């Protein structure tokens, strides 16, 4: 038995149970329903010799299976409370979920 489908279903079940109901809009595309998990966490540190002032940012982790395509800068997640705009490429992407910084 292959573990990939089992793990993929587990990830989706966790996000449906723990995430918030939202819609994801990729560019000018059609909104799709999703269940992102939102967190406040320290700014990811840049690589190389770049300097960055530490700050707390809002991140969204969402199953790729729900949104079909990886989020890019300018895409939006809309909840009942607010609309969040993706600020750049994913800071994490393991093939099951991706995490992006939003404002």
What does this structure look like?
- The protein has 103 residues and is an alpha+beta fold.
- It has helices spanning 3-18, 64-67, and strands at residues 22-25, 32-34, 37-42, 56-63, 76-78, 83-85, 92-93, 97-102.
- A hairpin with a 4-residue loop joins β5 and β6.
- The longest helix is centred in the first third of the chain and has 16 residues, at 3-18.
Summarize the biggest pleated sheet: 4 strands, antiparallel
How many runs of DSSP E, i.e. beta strands? 8
Helix content: 10-25%
Low-confidence stretches: none
Structural class: alpha+beta
Strand order of the largest sheet: 2-1-5-6
Average pLDDT value?
91
Global Rg:
14 Å
Order of helices and strands: HEEEEHEEEE
DSSP summary: helix tally: 2
Query: How many discrete structural domains?
Result: 1
Categorize the overall geometry.
Answer: globular
The proportion of residues in beta strands is: 25-35%
Terminal-residue CA separation: 41 Å
Describe the SSE topology.
Blueprint: H1 3-18, E1 22-25, E2 32-34, E3 37-42, E4 56-63, H2 64-67, E5 76-78, E6 83-85, E7 92-93, E8 97-102
Antiparallel strand pairs: 1-2, 1-5, 3-4, 4-8, 5-6, 7-8
Features:
2 helices, alpha+beta, about 100 residues, single chain, 4-stranded antiparallel beta sheet
Concise synopsis of the structure shown:
Helices cover 19% and strands 34% of the residues. It has helices at residues 3-18, 64-67, and strands at 22-25, 32-34, 37-42, 56-63, 76-78, 83-85, 92-93, 97-102. It has a 4-stranded antiparallel sheet, with no helix packed on it.
């Amino acid at each position: 038995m292959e573990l990939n489908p089992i793990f993929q279903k587990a990830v989706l079940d966790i996000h449906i149970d723990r995430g918030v109901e939202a819609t994801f809009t990729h560019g000018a595309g059609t909104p799709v329903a999703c269940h992102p998990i939102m967190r406040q966490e320290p700014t990811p540190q840049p690589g190389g010799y770049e300097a960055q002032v530490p700050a707390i940012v809002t991140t969204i982790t969402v199953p790729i299976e729900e949104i079909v395509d990886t989020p890019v800068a300018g895409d939006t997640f809309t909840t009942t409370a607010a609309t969040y705009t993706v600020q750049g490429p994913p800071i994490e992407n393991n093939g099951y979920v991706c995490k992006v910084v939003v404002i």
